[in-house]
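To illustrate the input format used throughout this study, we show a single complete record. The first block contains the structure-token representation of the backbone; no residue identities are included at this stage. The design step must infer an amino acid for every position from geometry alone.
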């Protein structure tokens, strides 16, 4: 299932796992809104900077989760993701802000 969403909140558990709560992406001026596709994506581990996703727009298909033009995670099933390494995540956040 496709994802075109804004991260409403990042939830972390003490064991290093957690989830991303998603909402439909608002429309850009003159455009159409995105459809989140999922309410939540869960993960078993994450980069320590994962809360940088709060309020950011993510997208992807059945195999990946993207932040801007950088793949930050692989989809593992319908509602789970596995983040890539920390350096890739930091690069994605940095590039997203440009």
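Output of the design step:
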């Amino acid at each position: 299932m496709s994802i075109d969403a804004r991260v409403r909140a990042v939830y972390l558990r003490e064991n290093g796992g957690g989830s991303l709560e998603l909402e439909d992406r608002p429309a850009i001026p003159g455009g159409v809104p995105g459809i989140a596709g999922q309410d939540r994506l869960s993960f078993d581990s994450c980069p320590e900077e994962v809360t940088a996703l709060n309020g950011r727009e993510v997208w992807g298909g059945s195999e990946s989760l993207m932040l801007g033009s950088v793949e930050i995670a692989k989809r593992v099933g319908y509602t789970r993701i596995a983040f890539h390494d920390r350096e890739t995540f930091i690069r994605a956040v940095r590039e997203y802000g440009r």
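Structural context for interpreting the output: The chain has one domain: 3-96. Strands lie at 3-12, 18-24, 40-43, 57-60, 64-67, 70-75, 81-83.
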